[in-house]
Automatic annotation (TrEMBL):
One of its GO terms (biological process) is response to radiation. Residues 14-292 form the UvrD-like helicase ATP-binding domain. ATP binds at residues 35-42. This is DNA 3'-5' helicase.
């Protein structure tokens, strides 16, 4: 560095704070940069690479930078080229998988691969597993294809080949290992490489070829890794092997933002880096450039409840900012209305809708929020996911329900004829399709005809008969049931619930929760919370209008890509993003932290880290909301505020109370707070004013007594206790209540 003038390096250090400068200009050895949320870590990484090239005189080809997403890799390369003013096409910047792929393409013979090997994605991998099970006559109910797929991928992420997996005499595990072995042989024969294989094969390539390993160790003088807290066992081993004893390694990450343990990430990797990489220099980036100090103080207090942290305190030179607003809705509908009404106020204050995000722990929570946004004409987009009624499991459940009403619904029949898998292959479906076309009949009729005349016989014929019997049975079993009971029965007896419950991990759990939320949607529908319910009856009579409502909600309500719209997303999807205004909905025990976190060691701390990530997405204003009564798993349950709320300092919080003419009803959970109860309610437009304790009559539910009331005007609601029907919340504008 002695031969470099101050003018050469000053642009690399200009506008950096002291900690950032320390990280950028550190000597070439090993360095751990603990980068807090909003502390400018990408900038530090880019400037660090530029420093190594300009000051330490490393060739661009001697640097390897690893990211977790292609988007992050592109951003790093673009910013680096802009900073240095030159093209860096051949610099090794990419994801773990893309760099592994580059190694395997270059050294395909040493890797024992065909020259033109093919990469298969997750869907291709699942299809291959399904074919293996079928070809070897293995019961796909006892060994669900997705579970086999997760097992294989999980083994590879741990760096394990089939012969290295310990079964300890367990027959089930032994069968899984055998399937893994057969899967691997099939891939070898076909020249197929899945994502897990890319990294494992490249690790083996370097490990088993000392000459090659020596070449790359000599070539890469410095390795840099972004989001290091998200590395899994295999990625960590790959990095250690490639770095050896000589290369300098810079890793950037935040143990407080490690939220992907459920997909293999090991927070221990960042915690043991200092012990396993010699003479590590640690730098903490704690100055935050995103959020107000009120938000940061809350985040620091929250995360301090986790044990074993590496330790850092976020701070800002900016303003204190507004306190965090906490709203307790009496149920999830009230919570959603509060959020959307507040968003409207924020827009009136001058915020763009795209500057506002609603975050939630469970995908299923989006349904109530989406419907409220749609009713109020508020444009929105689901970031990193699908709208509720477009999700695969919901579309499958609705297809079964449509078949109950209309067996000749070809699209619905074709969608679920083999979901869950029941041995009806694409060739069998094609036979039905050809017969239906040639004879001008529905697929349902073609199915019966093909089984009847023996066109489809043997295993295929039996499977078709079983499917037809299932639909008839569902129809018969649900006669006389209420709408939500019909949907519960169909979800269970069709096998959809068990099918997704057998998927390991968050995705399967999310699908089950979405199916349960569909039951909640049916309850809400029959309680008069939608105009289409005005003319509907109960039970099967309500199914057709409910399906119409679902179709309307699945229509083109989502905003165009470039339209100014509210952003909805899960907390996991929000990582790396920031918004001036953030709502975190459903901050309740059992929902957030999720009930599953209570069952596995370490999961509760990961849930707290997830909450920390959510809080630190907010730049200016943060709202935390929860419902005292929520429909969960098909029934209404009283909820307790999350422990995460209780872990926030009271002086940073303000409780929001409803404004104007609206007052909250007293519930069992609230009566001790001394809040006033609303005595009467009117919807206007000539409709009668109703009072608490008044007897009323409903055309469907019969006679009942008003227990609670909320609001005034067309959206006013009352809770009525009906004889034989229980308590229901009804919207006065179209509930057709008659005072007695």
């Amino acid at each position: 560095m002695d031969d470099v003038s101050p003018g050469d390096v000053s642009p690399l250090l200009d506008d950096l704070n002291p900690a950032q400068r320390e990280a950028v200009s550190a000597p070439q050895g090993n360095m751990l940069v603990l980068a807090g949320a909003g502390s400018g870590k990408t900038r530090v990484l880019v400037h660090r690479i530029a420093w190594l090239m300009q000051v330490e005189r490393l060739s661009p080809y001697a640097i390897l930078a690893v990211t977790f997403t292609n988007k992050a890799a592109r951003e790093m390369r673009t910013r680096l080229e802009a900073l240095l003013g030159l093209s860096l096409r051949n610099i090794w910047v990419g994801t773990f998988h893309s760099i592994a792929h580059r190694l395997l393409r270059t050294h395909w013979q040493d890797a024992r691969l065909p020259q033109h090997f093919q990469i298969i994605d997750s869907d291709d991998q699942l299809r291959l597993v399904k074919r293996l099970l079928k070809d070897h006559g293995i019961d796909d109910e006892r060994y669900p294809p997705r579970q086999v797929q997760y097992f294989i991928s999980g083994c590879k992420e741990e760096g394990l080949r089939p012969h290295q997996v310990q079964t300890h005499g367990d027959a089930y595990l032994g069968q899984m290992v055998e399937l893994y072995e057969r899967y691997q042989l099939t891939c070898e024969r076909g020249g197929l490489v899945d994502f897990g294989e890319l990294l494992l094969r490249s690790l083996e390539l370097l490990r088993d070829n000392p000459r090659l390993l020596a070449h790359y160790r000599e070539r890469f003088a410095h390795l840099l890794v972004d989001e290091f807290q998200d590395t899994n066992t295999l990625q960590y081993a790959w990095l250690k092997l490639l770095a050896g004893e000589q290369a300098g390694v810079t890793v950037v990450g935040d143990d407080d933002q490690s939220i992907y343990g459920w997909r293999g990430a090991r927070v221990e990797n960042i915690r043991r880096f200092e012990q396993e990489f010699k003479n590590t220099h640690t730098v903490r980036l704690e100055q935050n450039y995103r959020s107000t100090s009120a938000i940061l103080d809350a985040a620091n207090a929250l995360i301090s409840h986790n044990a074993g942290r590496m330790g850092k305190e976020l701070w800002t030179a900016g303003v204190k900012g507004e306190p965090i607003s906490v709203y307790a809705g009496f149920n999830d509908l009230d919570e959603a209305r509060f959020i959307v009404d507040t968003i409207r106020e924020k827009v009136d204050e001058g915020f763009h809708r795209r500057e506002i995000a609603i975050l939630y722990r469970s995908n299923a929570q989006s349904r109530v929020l989406e419907e409220t946004l749609i009713r109020q004409g508020m444009p929105y987009r689901i970031y990193g996911g699908q709208r509720f009624y477009e999700r695969l499991e919901i579309k499958n459940a609705l297809a079964y329900l449509r078949l109950l009403l209309n067996r000749d619904d070809d699209a619905s029949l074709e969608r679920v004829i083999n979901v869950p898998a029941r041995g009806i292959g694409t060739r069998t479906v094609e036979i039905l399709r050809e017969r239906a076309r040639s004879q001008g009949v529905s697929l349902w009729q073609a199915l019966h005809d093909s089984v009847g005349d023996g066109t489809c016989k043997g295993r295929a014929g039996n499977a078709l008969s079983a499917f037809a019997n299932l639909i008839e049975r569902l129809d018969n079993d649900t006669a006389g049931l209420r709408l939500h009971e019909i949907i519960t029965h169909v979800n269970e007896i069709s096998g959809l619930i068990d099918h997704h419950r057998n998927e390991k991990g968050e995705k399967g759990q999310a699908r089950v929760e979405n199916l349960e939320e569909l039951v909640n949607a049916a309850r809400a529908f029959t309680q008069g919370e939608t105009p289409l319910m005005q003319e509907a009856g109960e039970g099967a009579a309500a199914l057709e209008p409910f399906l119409a409502e679902a179709a309307l909600n699945a229509g083109d309500h989502e905003a165009d890509e470039f339209e100014d719209c509210v952003q909805l997303m899960t907390l996991h999807s929000a990582k790396g993003l920031e918004f001036p205004v953030v709502f975190i909905a459903g901050v309740e025990e059992g929902l957030f932290p999720h009930k599953m976190s209570m069952e596995e060691p370490g999961r509760l701390e990961e849930e707290r880290r997830l909450c920390y990530v959510g809080v630190t997405r907010a730049m200016h204003k943060l709202y935390l909301t929860y419902a005292e009564l929520r429909r969960l798993h098909g029934k209404e349950t009283f909820q307790r505020a999350s422990r995460f709320l209780r872990e926030l300092p009271e002086e940073l919080l303000e409780e929001v109370r409803l404004r104007g003419q609206i007052s909250r009803p007293v519930t069992a959970a609230r009566s001790s707070r001394g809040l006033a109860q609303q005595e009467s309610v009117t919807a206007g437009d000539g409709l009668p004013t109703l009072s608490l304790g008044q007897r009323v009559s409903h055309p469907l539910f019969g006679e009942g007594v008003i227990l609670n009331a909320e609001g005034q005007g067309e959206r006013a609601r009352v809770q009525v206790s009906f004889e034989g029907e229980g308590d229901k919340w009804l919207v006065l504008g179209f509930a057709k209540l008659t005072p007695l």
